[in-house]
Amino acid sequence: MFAAVTLGAFGAHGLRSTLEASGHQDTWETAVLYQLVHGLALFAVGIWQAVSAEFRHRSVLRAAAWLWLFGIILFSGSLYWLSLSGPKWLGPVTPIGGLCFLAGWLALAIGGWRAGHAEPFHSA
User: Could you read off the pLDDT of 45-95 as tens digits, one per residue?
Assistant: First the structure.
């Protein structure tokens, strides 16, 4: 999330004229937004696993976290690079990152559903 805030500020101030001239200011802002949202989701899942016995060993939450991390790299990373006149072959990478985000949210939903249907946690 630190990197997203830094990149957001850099885009708004240091790169403003470059992004406006190329018409990529909205693309940069989208990359920052998705990085921030999914960074916050990663943080929340980490806390959830730490405080909830039902989720402590759930592979679906780890899968969601990895999918979001890959999504940030592929989706936001490709948009940042494309905004700075990166190679056009990166265009098809962006939707793969979006699919990673979606798969991560699906994994989280599955994990939540399973936790709601699991037997109560009993400590010995």
Answer: 888 877 776 655 578 888 999 999 999 999 999 999 999 987 888 788 999
CA distances from 51 to 46, 47, 54, 68 (A): 9, 6, 9, 21
Residue type, 101: F
Question: Cα–Cα distance between 34 and 95 in angstroms, integer?
Answer: 13
Which residue is it, tokens 């708004």? 12
Q: Do 50 and 97 meet the contact criterion of CB atoms below 8 Å apart?
A: no
Give 124's DSSP letter.
Answer: -
